[in-house]
Each structure stands twice: as structure tokens, then as C-alpha cells.
Amino acid sequence: MVALYLAARSPQTPWHARLAAACVAAYALSPVDLIPDFVPVLGYLDDLLIVPLGIWLVIRMIPAELMAGFRAEAAAFNARPRSMAGLAFIVALWLAAVALIGWWVVRGVGGVRQ
User: Fold this and answer.
1) Dihedral sign from CA coordinates of 8, 10, 16, 19
2) CA-CA distance, 59 to 62, in Å (whole number)?
3) Which residues of 18-33 are buried (b: 16+ CB within 10 A; e: fewer)?
4) DSSP letters for the chain
5) What is the pTM (predicted TM-score) of this model?
6) Which terminus of the chain has a lower count of CB atoms within 10 Å, N or C?
């Protein structure tokens, strides 16, 4: 997926492949589906077929040597060390939110009893 992101942002990628990549990403992230998800089986089947087929199509539209370069760049990007500071910040926010809600519930329940 990182390689496709890099390909979609590169000016070397043909315009039609960039447009197709944008459409696949928009469909994958869009809350609107061709078949709504509440329809049994078919609701998720369109996501399981359309998105992978779109990714496959975009990869086929990009020249092989160019895609190999994007894959190498993505591998180098994924091999970089990651900082845990962002994760720690998000976990701290969630813990603070849970503690605040817990305090609010206990305080609210205690106030109702009195």
C-alpha cells in the first residue's frame, strides 16, 4: 500500500494510473458503497472484490520498472525505526478519557443517591 501511495504521488506515474489510484483510495475510504454493508454477504463482498481488483488494476497500469522503484522505496520506508512517542500519546489520551468518564459516572451516581 505504501508503494501505491508513492506511485500515486509521483509525477513519473502516468496520469491515468494516478487517477485510478485516487478513485480506488476514495472508494476504499468512502462511507458510501455500491452495495450497502447491511445487505447480508453482498454488502462486504463488494469491498472484498472491488478494492483488491482496483489495486491490481492500478499496479498493472504502472510500468514495471517504475513500480519496482516504488516498492524498493516503500521497503526502505518501512524498515526505518519507529518512535513509540506517538503511540504513548494516543494511549495516554484514551486512558485519560476513560478515567474522566469513570470519574464522571461515579460522581454522577454518587450525586443521585444523596
Assistant:
1) positive
2) 5
3) bebbeebbebeeeeee
4) -HHHHHHHH-TTS-HHHHHHHHHHHHHHH-S--SS-TTSTTHHHHHHHHHHHHHHHHHHHHS-HHHHHHHHHHHHHHHHS---SHHHHHHHHHHHHHHHHHHHHHHHHHHHHH-
5) 0.61
6) C
CA distance 70 to 5: 9
Cβ–Cβ < 8 Å for 5, 24: no
User: Could you give the dihedral angle defined by the CA atoms of residues 55, 59, 60 and 64, in that order, rounded to the nearest 10 degrees?
Assistant: -170
Q: CA-to-CA distance for 21 and 7, rounded, in angstroms?
A: 9
Residues of the chain predicted below pLDDT 50: 114
Q: For residue 24, what pLDDT is reported?
A: 86
State the cell numbers at 109. Answer: 451516581
Question: How far is 87 from 95, CA to CA, in rounded Å?
Answer: 12
